[in-house]
Amino acid sequence: MRPARRSRWRKARCRIFEALSTLCAAVAVIVLVAVIGYVLVNGARALNFDFFTQLPAPVGEPGGGMANAIVGTLIIVCIGALISIPTGVLAGIYLAEYGENRFADLVRFLADVLTGIPSIVVGILAYALVVVPMQKFSALAGGVALAVLMLPTVIRATEEMLRLVPGSLREASLALGAPRWKTILRIVLPTASGGLATGAMLAIARATGETAPLLFTAFGNSFWNTSLVDPMAAVPLQVFQYAISPYDSWHAQAWAGALVLVVLVLALSAAVRLVARPLQTQE
Amino acid sequence: MAVTLWESDRASAARRGHGWLSARAADRVFLGLAGLFAAAIVGLVLLIAFELARSSTLAWDTFGFGFLTSTRLDPVARRFGALPYIYGTIVSSLLALLIGAPLGLGGAIFLSELAPRWMRSPVSFLIEMLASIPSVVYGLWALFVLVPIVRQLIEPALGSTLGQVLPLFQGPPYGVGILSAGLVLAIMILPTIAAISRDVLLAVPREQREGLLALGATRWEVISTVVLPYARAGILGAVILGLGRALGETMAVTMVIGNRGEISASLFALADTMASVIANQFTEASYPLYLSALVELGLVLFGVTIVLNIVARWLVWRVNRGGVRRAA
What we know:
The complex is a heterodimer of chains A (283) and B (328).
Chain A: H1 2-46, H2 49-53, H3 67-98, H4 102-114, H5 119-134, H6 139-163, H7 167-175, H8 180-191, H9 193-208, H10 235-243, H11 248-281
Helix pairs in contact in A: 1-11, 3-6, 3-9, 3-10, 4-6, 5-6, 6-9, 7-8, 9-11, 10-11
Chain B: H1 2-17, H2 23-55, H3 57-63, H4 66-69, H5 83-114, H6 117-131, H7 135-160, H8 178-202, H9 206-214, H10 219-248, H11 251-256, H12 274-281, H13 288-320
């Protein structure tokens, strides 16, 4: 009898832990679905055409929109992309094509470590490098901060994508007498261009929602501004400022802004995953 | 294709005939250029450290080590102490780990060991999506959904039970405060911990499991005696990465922690973290010493998170024997 009871106990214990582990996954999924659900419902209620075309309304007046912040986010993210994508792609080329040495290992490691540095610290860096010398907040400073945050993503994505390019293509080109640099630029990069684009999109998606590094770089602005050397509005900044304000109409605007951010970020990330999957299975 | 390549190459070789750059030199220039940009990463990390150190020397010279242990923060009297912020950062992050790590690990075990095959990919996908939601959105959600729940349900419930004994759960239920900050942080680090732990668990060799299963072990016995011990270092790494994220998280915490730089025994109390005080006061810092003190907080944050990340990446790498799939 004893072994039978023991076996029943072992099976029961197994059930209990399986149930607990399933519960953990369920709680995680439920909480996280709740976050998205609230943003969708509250955001959809507040979102309208004016949101994309109007300037922010003054305190107390209903309506208004975030047109300036949307354009501002586009500009700031573009600055970040213009700095980080060429830099990151070149560094990624080094890692993928020449990267079988300890220096490359160090660079890989630091790129990973860099993703863990708090974004507010990067904001301080951009403040010290750009805002202090220029003596004012600017879109440029915000772009520099975002560039630093995007860089590790671009580098590692570039390396991964270039490594997926078959070695036979490189060998064919080299055998025809093409120098290595030309092989990389004319054969390897074009072959991996789809993958490189998804890596860049991933970096852009992450940067679009960043708020902390813009607080004291781009700073925010309630009016139109397209000058790169002046304070500029951004959607995440506006969401933050509206959320902590005491006005209901501003809270509604904050939900609408959050919805726009979430849809943008999730759409970009999902697109990346869909595009990247067939690429990876080709390997 | 091949012919045109060859021809264009010959054409460029001809152009190079009177040129200044041989093919080999061009290769070397290209390698140098790419290497230079790779080195920029090393430079960037050093630059961050240097700039933070340079901008905080004033505070360092004025307060020395006392900065880290002093509790008085009075911009008017020009006194600055970091202890309340260090305290707030540590307590809120530990709270987040306490809640987020078991949930994340449990979820990872489910995804890697128990879930039916059709379920793994979509759930993993969802969890990775959630890691990419901006923190300001989590903050907005926490402020308008989580904080009222904490104020009306969780804090009164905790206060009337555990609060009778423990000062940890005493005090008026504001809703905002360390407890809410810890909860929202737990939600935010959950995807990080779950995704990396799952990768680590999947890296455990199949033979290890099969060996024990063949001996008649139950699924749980396999997990607890073989899988988890094998993946221990990597799971620890995942948890440390989650901790690193919690320590440096700014927006969501700033929105729900109440922003008051005081040390209190209660989790219900308003508090402040290093990141949130920088976010709140940086643009208000009206004189150099004030700003310098805030930058020194940033330096501390940078130092702590970089050490944690180095340790964590190394632990995860040891198990995966390759790059960590970045989920964070």
